[in-house]
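Sequence and structure are kept together here, with a separate record for every protein. An example record follows, reproduced without changes.
>
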Amino acid sequence: MQHLYMNTVIKFFFLLTPFFLLSTFLSMTGQMPDPIRKRISLKVTLAIIIISMTLLFIGNQIFSIFGITLNSFRIGTGILLFLSAKSLVQGTGTIQNTEGDEEVAVVPLAIPVAIGPATTGALLVMSGDMTSTSHLIVAMLAVLTAVVFTGLLLFVSSYFEKILKRQGLAILSKITGLILAAMAAEMVMTGIKGFL
């Protein structure tokens, strides 16, 4: 169980593309005072928790309603994840700036920057993989841990901005993209093996 927990925390942390989320958060809240930034970061964290928990709990129902097999969903999710990774590595993952609007917490920061198509797919696959209630509880705690870590990054974003500067955040986003690309390849290969 401990192995499942740690693996899920690390996997989901990178699925949330935290450094891209951080750089997007900084660009959209650039002119806001620090107290407002912190309030928005808490809203983003809460929104991500609600969305991810909902997806985690309804995953099996979605599979049964639409007659989708877990392996086909793995392959589809892997492709979407690869496209997300490609945009991060190439630096094309940009979100329109709506500076000054606190409503950016849910859209676009929580959706689609943190919980995009690939993350949604990964949550549904994770839900389908859970064979027991204990596994589901461990997965849920792991996802919550990853979201809290991501929220902490946003909460102290002003310090990261001073230390890393924009170029440093861009480099971290590219590294995140490379890790996501490897995860995407693993998901596609697992799906293909399942069909074979």
Observations:
- DSSP finds eight helices and no strands in the chain.
- Confidence is low (pLDDT under 50) at residues 94-100.
- The radius of gyration is 17 Å.
- The first helix runs from residue 2 to 15.
